[in-house]
């Protein structure tokens, strides 16, 4: 995909006035959908890591370390192939590292919330990023979201309540205030990352962009667990979890969002990324052997319906 400059407010949401525009919009929406699906695996893997005796700082640092390893290997591969990399100024590198700090905030707050509140409650709080993303869009563009985007956000939020299991009585006891605060903070960071993915140095090649963003992420990881490499935790097997958390928790979504978010509005990007929850429910069944109620299945269906609602109006436009 060709690189583009960071879009201005006047062209953030170009109308799809042709079949080619519709196809491009659907393709980029599908890419963001896939990036959100990567996040759906994380909660189950983190729970398994906690069950194996690893701590919150070790899990966060492991994800950061293996994500950085992915981008470092890609950089070496590019150099071996003789592919030229863009020259970045110090300011550009700092911007990308700051974006990495935002996504590190999502991981840190979300994984910390899992220590205090049930996973169903944590994922419900995290998924408030769907409407927070619309707030970011209104605040920056000074334009009202489309009716389809508003309706999709409402449908996704309602579906989230059903899919989380809260309405069925799951996880309603012993809600720790710190866990709730961390869950909401994770939602704000997640919406912020989706917003920045379409605006910060979008002309930089995706892999190089991800490497510098990951530098900010690694700083947070090693600040939480400075003895990660010397403590012997890798020999105890946390690397197996890191091999999943690193690529799926940062590297792959960073590249996918970097490719597609700049072509979509912030509101639509956050709605498409809601694919995380259906995948999270599926992984909880397959990996954690949790039971799924019909109410939760209905919630997942509602979320998918919200994704479809967000895509319908542009497909009805004709040049």
Describe the structure in your own words.
There is one protein chain. The protein has 13 helices and no strands. The chain has 319 residues and is mostly helical.
Brief characterization of the structure:
Helix content is 71%, strand content 0%. It has helices at residues 19-39, 42-51, 56-80, 90-113, 119-126, 129-141, 147-164, 177-197, 206-224, 234-260, 266-272, 276-286, 294-316.
The whole-number mean of residue pLDDT values reads 78
Q: What structural class do helix, strand and pairing data support?
A: mainly alpha
Q: How many runs of DSSP E, i.e. beta strands?
A: 0
Helix percent band: over 70%
What portion of residues belong to β-strands? Answer: under 5%
Point out poorly predicted stretches: 1-17
How large is the count of helical segments? 13
Radius of gyration: 19 Å
Terminal residue distance: 24 Å
Largest sheet: none
Q: What is the chain-wise order of helices and strands? A: HHHHHHHHHHHHH
- Shape call: globular
């Amino acid at each position: 995909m060709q690189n583009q400059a960071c879009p201005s407010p006047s062209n953030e949401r170009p109308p799809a006035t042709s079949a080619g525009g519709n196809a491009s919009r659907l393709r980029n929406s599908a890419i963001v959908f896939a990036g959100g699906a990567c996040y759906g695996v994380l909660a189950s893997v983190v729970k398994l890591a906690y069950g194996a005796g690893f701590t919150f700082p070790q899990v966060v640092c492991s994800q950061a370390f293996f994500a950085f390893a992915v981008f470092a290997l890609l950089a070496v591969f590019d150099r071996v192939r003789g592919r030229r990399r863009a020259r970045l100024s110090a300011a550009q590198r700092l911007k990308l590292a700051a974006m990495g700090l935002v996504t590190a905030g999502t991981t840190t707050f979300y994984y910390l919330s899992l220590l205090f509140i049930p996973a169903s409650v944590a994922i419900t709080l995290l998924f408030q990023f769907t409407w927070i993303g619309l707030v970011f869009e209104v605040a920056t563009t000074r334009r009202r979201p489309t009716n389809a985007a508003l309706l999709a956000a409402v449908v996704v939020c309602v579906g989230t309540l059903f899919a989380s299991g809260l309405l069925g009585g799951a996880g309603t006891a012993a809600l720790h205030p710190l866990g709730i605060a961390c869950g909401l903070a994770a939602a704000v960071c997640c919406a912020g990352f989706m917003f920045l993915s379409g605006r910060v140095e979008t002309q930089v090649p995706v892999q190089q962009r991800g490497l510098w963003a990951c530098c900010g992420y690694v700083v947070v990881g090693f600040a939480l667990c400075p003895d990660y490499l010397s403590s012997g935790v890798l020999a105890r097997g946390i690397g197996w979890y890191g091999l999943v958390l690193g690529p799926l928790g940062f590297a792959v979504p960073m590249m996918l969002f970097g490719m597609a978010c700049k072509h979509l509005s912030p509101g639509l990007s956050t709605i498409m990324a809601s694919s995380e929850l259906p995948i999270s429910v599926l992984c909880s069944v397959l990996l954690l052997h949790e039971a799924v109620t019909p109410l939760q299945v209905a919630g997942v269906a509602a979320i998918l319906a919200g994704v479809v609602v967000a895509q319908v109006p542009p497909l009805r436009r004709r040049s």
